Amino acid sequence: MEIKNINIKVQSTTDTSELEQSVQTLIGKAQEAAKRAYAPYSNFQVGACLLLDNGEMIEGNNQENASYPCGSCAERTALHYANSRFPNSIVKAIAISAYNQNGLLDEPITPCGMCRQALLEAEVRSEKSMRVILNGKNRTYILDKATDLLPLSFDNSKL
């Protein structure tokens, strides 16, 4: 049996002020988007903000529904809006933050599997890497590409 090691580079900081201004802005917009989430069932509010290659910043947040599977995550809300509004633009970066009843989460939240697949699709579609910024109160993680969220991923090359 062969063992395959999958290495993923994740930058980590406890001080967002050391990040470039554009990343700080994305994080702030993701946090604000999270505060506007419709999450009456879970009280878990997630916000995302995309930076497009045309300079636009697109925010999204989770939208819950009493019929649980009908809701939408923040990441996919932002991606779908960006694709409908700016279909030829490339997503350069996404920042994601989340709040619960105690406020901004201490540690960063990671996207669910469905959102990881959607981020991967956006990256494959554009043929450009998408920077992923995962923000919490005590730590922020930065990945250079969305495919790092989903090792051994499924994409259109497998069809």
Task: Briefly characterize the structure.
This protein is α+β, with helices and mostly antiparallel strands and 159 residues long. It is built from 3 helices and 7 strands. Strands 1, 2, 3, 4, 5, 6 and 7 form a 7-stranded mixed beta sheet that branches.
Task: Quickly list its features.
159 residues; alpha+beta; 26% helix; 7-stranded mixed β-sheet; globular
Note down, in words, how this protein is organized.
This protein is an alpha+beta fold. The chain has helices spanning 21-35, 74-85, 113-126, and strands at residues 10-13, 45-52, 57-61, 91-100, 103-104, 131-135, 140-143. Strands 1, 2, 3, 4, 5, 6 and 7 form a 7-stranded mixed β-sheet that branches. The longest helix is centred in the N-terminal third of the chain and has 15 residues, at 21-35.
According to DSSP, the number of beta strands is 7
Order of helices and strands: EHEEHEEHEE
Number of helices: 3
Strand content: 15-25%
Distance between the termini: 27 Å
Radius of gyration: 15 Å
Shape: globular
Structural class: alpha+beta
Largest sheet: 7 strands, mixed
Uncertain stretches of 5 or more adjacent residues = none
Helix content: 25-40%
Mean pLDDT: 96
Give the topology, please:
Layout: E1 10-13, H1 21-35, E2 45-52, E3 57-61, H2 74-85, E4 91-100, E5 103-104, H3 113-126, E6 131-135, E7 140-143
Parallel strand pairs: 4-6
Antiparallel strand pairs: 1-7, 2-3, 2-4, 4-5, 6-7
